[in-house]
Design a protein that fits this description.
The chain has 17 helices and 13 strands. By secondary structure, the protein is of the alpha+beta class. Among the domains are: about 235-315; about 320-400; about 435-510, Signal transduction histidine kinase, dimerisation/phosphotransfer (DHp) domain (Helix Hairpins, Orthogonal Bundle); about 515-660, Heat Shock Protein 90 (2-Layer Sandwich). The strands form three sheets. A six-stranded antiparallel sheet has the order 2-1-6-3-4-5, covered by helices on one side. Strands 8-10-11-13-12 form a five-stranded mixed sheet. A hairpin with a 2-residue loop joins β12 and β13 (about 655-660). It starts with a helix and ends in a 13-residue tail after the last strand.
């Protein structure tokens, strides 16, 4: 249940925001129309609806005035007018007299004085001698001074009606007598107006403000809801969104005109359109939200863009000439419908403006259009020749890039691309000459290194041998034996360097011989560790091998691969931080066996340097006598055996990976001895 509640919170937050803003818009519009689009009397009636005494309202005053005029008309001309008031409505008592006699009355009491009013009546109006006197709650009111009956005029009454007396008494709390006009109706109308005002002008803004505050408190959930809406609209085709803009513009225009009529000209005929204003508003917000979250990939959800991408994928198999020809034809075809529509409209325009200059103007347009079409056809022909030359030029560039032998490209004298083809030929000649010179220099360097290394091997072997013999002599002084020991170490190191340089040179020249055979990768690593056990024990770092027990069969040259891990483990033992651990792992995944050597360097590793290049060392300040060929030899031998070699440094963490594909071959068993 809690999960479901969390899932609907974004929707509730967005809904609260939309409803809150909508209610505030309606309320603001209602209050604005109330103060700008209504008359003062309407606003007065709204204020009167909240008065506690209905006799203080403008509606009551108008009703009393109308009743007084009606009774005066009846008293002056009883033969012309019928009795205007309902006798059964006791909320309003009346007496009409003339020449000292009562003509009509709906009460048996005396209404000529506030002291004689029946119980429950607190308002008395007496018209006598052409003037009005009003008492309310026993107090006489300043009838004309306070403007209560400012509109009351009796000058039109004839001389025969000068002695008319009219008395009107209104109940303090009207009751229902089934009469549709009177004090009770005034009270009921006040209650209805109060209800309308509360539910239309008070409750909506309060509810809107509460919903808006709720959405603000849930702004995190609202943000998720808005993102979900953006995700949904992002999957709608762009063409559908463009089509929906048409009714949106129509709605905005209709609502704008009706709002102008309502608030400027006080014309409420378009009120339904005004009430529909939030619809285009939130519709526009959907577009803005879509632009916010999907602006960068609007074209990815477009039918036209999908068709264009499909067409472009089909174009990839065409030549450049065919592509440009198709585009030129498409451009021409797109212009034809407009020209045909113009031709179809020409007869009607000619008939309509037969006696004017329009036919001449249209004829001129026709001639100009025909000339433009002819010019476009000529340009299409010229562009076709240019695209053909461009296709040849691109084909030549692709062939040159692939290393295929190509001659110089010859284009016609009037070709737009003749100079470009000539420049390409000169550039190709220069690149070819530079490449040949570089290859010649590289071959010379490799041959020189190989020859020097080969020439040094023989004297070095002799030096090593004589140093060994010298070390076996007896009776040498102690300092002489130190000299012999130093000579032995330096000659051995020099011999190793010469051998490394010779092997790297052979590998660079492609002359490195490898003997590929199935071998157990894990067994090779264990053998390497066993042979280097003395160096491992003497190192301040500890080595932690993690090798599988079962065989891991790969195909490689065992001697070369043994040398690879000799170099990698030797480097790790030599340059690892004292007291740290060196990890040697062998893993198998997706048909590939990967050996990984990891250690933390005691010196800072350089950034942006390829450590597998020849004569590159991790620290230029080292004086340990390293040649800088260890990783280069490891990479060269690994690649020569068909594997992959990678080095990665992250801060002071050094990682080397040697990977080979697994093989199904197994070593052939030697036949038993006879």
């Amino acid at each position: 249940m809690d999960t479901k509640w969390r899932s609907i919170k974004p929707g509730l937050a967005v809904l609260a925001f939309v409803l809150g803003v909508t209610l505030l818009l309606y309320s603001g519009g209602g209050w604005l129309y109330l103060f700008t689009g209504t008359s003062a009397s309407v606003r007065t009636n709204l204020v009167d609806a909240f008065r506690g005494d209905y006799q203080q309202t403008q509606v009551f005053r108008q009703m009393i005035g109308d009743d007084l005029y009606a009774l005066l008309d009846y008293a002056a001309y009883p033969d012309l007018y019928s009795m205007p008031l309902e006798e059964r409505d006791s909320n309003l008592l009346y007496q009409v007299g003339k020449e000292g006699q009562w003509l009509v009355s709906n009460t048996t009491g005396d209404l000529s004085s506030p002291d004689t009013l029946p119980e429950g009546y607190n308002f008395l109006l007496v018209f006598a001698q052409n003037s009005v006197t009003i008492w309310k709650d026993g107090q006489e009111l300043d009838t004309y001074g306070d403007g209560m009956f400012r509109e009351l005029e009796t000058a039109w009454i004839s001389a025969g009606g000068q002695d008319v007396v009219v008395c009107l008494a209104a109940a303090k709390e009207p009751v229902d007598y089934g009469w549709s006009y009177g004090p009770y109706n005034v009270v009921q109308n006040m209650a209805q107006v109060r209800t309308y005002v509360i539910w239309l002008l008070v409750v909506p803004p309060a509810a809107g403000a509460a919903l808006l505050v709720w959405s603000i408190l849930w702004r995190r959930h609202r943000r998720r809801g808005v993102e979900a809406i953006g995700w949904f609209t992002g999957h709608i085709w762009l063409e559908v969104k463009a089509l929906l803009l048409v009714p949106l513009v129509f709605l905005w225009s209709g609502c704008g005109v009706c709002l102008l009529q309502l608030f400027v000209y006080s014309n409420s005929g378009g009120l339904p359109w005004c009430l529909a204003t939030p619809l285009p508003l939130w519709w526009s917000c959907l577009y803005l939200n879509d632009l916010r979250y999907n602006f960068g990939h609007l074209r990815s959800h477009s039918f036209c863009a999908a068709c264009v991408r499909l067409f472009r994928r089909q174009e990839l198999g065409w030549t450049v000439q065919r592509r440009m020809d198709r585009r030129a034809v498409l451009q021409f075809v797109l212009c034809v419908p407009f020209f045909l529509v113009w031709l179809a409209r020409f007869p009607s325009l000619y008939q309509r403006y037969y006696y004017s200059l329009w036919p001449l103007v249209l004829a001129g347009f026709f001639l100009v259009g025909t000339g433009l079409i002819a010019a476009q056809l000529k340009l299409m022909t010229a562009n076709r020749k240019t695209t053909a030359d461009m296709d040849r030029l691109l084909t030549h560039i692709q062939a040159a890039g692939a290393g295929s032998p190509t001659g110089k490209l010859a284009l016609p004298e009037d070709s737009d691309l003749r100079e470009a083809a000539a420049s390409l030929g000169h550039m190709e000649d220069g690149l070819r000459a530079a490449l040949e010179e570089q290859m010649k220099s590289e071959r010379t360097k490799i041959e020189l290194i190989a020859n020097v290394s080969h020439d040094l091997k023989t004297p070095l072997t002799s030096i090593v041998s004589y140093v060994e013999l010298l070390g076996q002599e007896e009776g040498l002084p102690e300092h002489a034996r130190d000299y012999v020991r130093i000579l032995s170490e330096k000659s051995q190191r020099l011999q190793t360097m010469v051998r490394d340089v010779f092997e790297v040179s052979k590998a660079a020249a492609g002359n490195l011989q490898v003997t590929m055979a199935p071998l157990d990768y894990a067994k090779l690593l264990r053998q390497t560790l066993a042979d280097m056990s003395e160096a491992i024990e003497a190192s301040p770092a500890s080595l932690r091998p993690r090798l599988p027990e079962e065989p891991v069969w790969i195909e490689a040259d065992g001697d070369r691969l043994y040398r690879v891990f000799q170099n990698l483990i030797g480097n790790a033992l030599k340059y690892a931080l004292g007291g740290s651990r060196i990890y040697l792992d062998l893993t198998v995944a997706e048909g590939t066996a990967t050996a990984m050597v990891r250690n933390i360097s005691r010196d800072e590793l350089p950034q942006g340097v390829d450590l597998t290049e020849r004569f590159v060392r991790g620290d230029a300040s080292r004086t340990d006598g390293g040649s800088g060929l260890g990783l280069s030899i490891a990479r060269t031998f690994t690649e020569a055996c068909g594997g992959s070699f990678a080095v990665q440094t992250e801060a002071d963490l050094f990682t080397a990976r040697v990977s080979f594909l697994l093989t199904g071959r197994r070593p052939e068993e030697e036949p038993p001895a006879a």
